[in-house]
User: What shape does this take?
Amino acid sequence: MTNIYMDALSRLDKAFSFAHIETEAITKLKHPQSILQVSLPLRMDDGSLKVFTGYRVRHNTTRGPGKGGIRFHPDLSLAEVQALAFWMTIKCAVVGIPFGGAKGGIVVEPKLLSRLELERLSRAYMNAIADFVGPDKDIPAPDVYTNAMIMGWMMDEYSKIVRKSSPAIITGKPIPLGGSLGREEATGLGGFYCIQELANKNKWNPKSIRVAIQGFGNVGQHIASILYENGYKIVAVSDSQGGVFRSEGLDIPSLIEVKKSTQKLRAVYCTGSVCEESNAEKVSNEELLALEVDILIPAALENQITKLNADNIKAPVIVEIANGPITLEADDILLKKNILIVPDVLANSGGVTVSYFEWVQNKAGFYWTLKEVNQRLEEIMVREFDNVYKIMQKNTIDMRTAAYVHALNRYAEAVASQGTQEFFDKITG
Ligand code: GLU
Assistant: This one.
C-alpha cells in the first residue's frame, strides 16, 4: 500500500474517537474487499498491438453493492484506485444511499486514442471485468476522462455478454440508453446545494461572492454555470493548460463555448474575438489557487493543494468538487489558517446520488422527470449537509472529520446489525 491510500485511510483515525463505532469495524474498513487487475491488448488503428492495464477495486459492500466511477488517466495507479474506492464507501454512507464503495480505471492517455480505439478499449475493459461487476454486485460510472458515451459502450458490451439488456450495470449512460435526466450536471448541482446552505447560514449575497474554480471539465463547467446563473461572481477558471482571470467576473457561457469548440481555455486569451470580448487575463493553476477569493473550488484531480502551496491559499472557504484535492499535510495547514473545507465526500456526492437514482429507475423500468431528480437530490444534499454541519459544531471538529464521523456512524449501524464482538460474547461468554 502506498501513500495516497494510506493517507486516505488515516482520516479514519481522526474521526474514530467521535463516532459510535467499534475498532473491529474500522479494521475491516482498512482492507479493500477485492482487487482486480487486467491486461487489455488493443489493436491500434495502425495495425500495431498495445497492452493497457486496467483495475477495478471493490472496497466495501457492507451497506450495498459497490459503486464508483471508471477513470482513464496516464498516471493512474492501483493505490489511487484503492483510495478512490475507499472514498466512495465513505461518500455513499455520508449521503445515506444503499451502496458500498468501488472504483476502476485504465492507465491510458485517452486524448491520444482515436474514437474507434477508445471504443474498442472501453469494450475490452468491460469484457475483462464482466465477472467482477454486476447490477447487484458492483456498478461503475463515469469519472475523470470518461463520459456518457463510454458508459453506453460498456453497457452494450455487458449486455452482450449476459445476453440480456442490462442498463443497471452502469450509470451515467446517455439518456436514450437508460441514463437519468440530471445525471450529467448532478455533481456540480450537489456542490451548489452545499454552497447554498453555506450562503444561507452566513447570509451571503451571491453577487459579492468571488469564486475561483480549478478544473474546467464536465464537473467544473457545470458548477461554474450553476453558480453563474445564481449570481455568483466567477473570477477565475483553469484547466490543465492554464486559466483565465477577470476581477469583474467571467462570462461563463461564452467560456464554455470556447472550451467546447477548441478544447482549450487557452484559446480565450490568445487570439480571436472571444479573447477580446472576455477581456480576461492569463493565470496559471498555481496562481489561481492563491487568488483572493471567497470560495475556492478545486474541481480537477487529487493532490493539488499540498504542503508546498497550502500557505498561499487566501480563500476562507474551499469546496472540494474533485476527489482528494488536498493532501493530509495541507489539510492541517489550512485548518490552522481557519479555512472551512467542505470535503469531497460531501461536496461531490451529488454525482453518485443521481447515479443511485439512475440505477433505481433502470431496475424499476420507470423514469423520472428532471424536476423529480433535482428535488430528490436537493432534499438529500441539504439534509446531509446539515447533518454533517451539526456534527462539526457539536464536537468542534473540522467538516471533513465530521463527514467521516457521519459516514462511520451509518457504516457502524450496518455492521452492528450483523453482530459485533460484543453481541457474540454475550452468547458464548
Ligand atoms: N465518479 C464519481 C465520483 O467520484 C461518480 C461515481 C458514481 O456515480 O458511481 O463520485
